[in-house]
Amino acid sequence: MAAPSSAVSCEDFAEFQELLRVMRTIDDRIVHELNTTIPTASFVGKVDASQTCKELYQSLMEAHTSRERIIKNCIAQTSSVVKTLREEREKAQDDVALLKQLRKEQTKVSGGDLERSLRIEIDAVGAEC
Q1: Cα–Cα distance measured from residue 97 to residue 103, given in angstroms and rounded to the nearest whole number
Q2: Is residue 38 within a helix (H) or strand (E), and if so which, with residue range?
Q3: Which residues form a coiled coil (predicted)?
Q4: Cβ-contact 105, 128 below 8 angstroms
Q5: Which is nearest to 117 in space by CA: 18, 16, 25, 1?
Q6: Neighbouring C-beta atoms of residue 71, cutoff 10 Å
Q7: What's the pLDDT tens digit per position in 38-72?
Q8: Closest-CA residue to 105 (of 93, 88, 117)
């Protein structure tokens, strides 16, 4: 999947998660992609397996780079909000609503998702091709 054309905001976390889910389509279909990329014995001479495998690998890398960029952008946005909320919290320590908002922002984004998906699919493609 191509990268979204406009800047992505992670303010609406559900929307951000949906965007990542859609961007993971290539990862979710990796077995199918490998099966259709690597020719069977009857098609060995008709398909350049090396070239199609290289194209699949490049497609995976582009998808992962896009996801990584979006995730890092969201982490930066959220970090900025957290910093502002911490500063406000220091001035208004009795503000319960502010504390809840701060906690919500602190737990909003985790980059672990990216590392988990990156290694599995890239290793699989590299091993098969």
Answers
A1: 10
A2: none
A3: 75-105
A4: no
A5: 25
A6: 22
A7: 767 666 667 777 788 888 888 888 888 888 888 88
A8: 88
Cβ-in-10-Å burial (0-12, 13-18, 19+) of 47 comes to: middle
Would you state the torsion angle of the CA atoms of residues 8, 10, 14, 18, taken in this order, to the nearest 10 degrees?
A: 30
Structure-token pair, residue 70: 């979006």
Q: Which of 43, 25, 34, 63 lies closest to 128 in space, CA to CA?
A: 34
Token pair of 51 as six digits: 């070239």
Residue-wise pLDDT for 75-128, tens only, equals 788 888 888 998 998 898 889 998 888 888 877 755 445 445 445 545 555 555
CA distance 103 to 115: 24
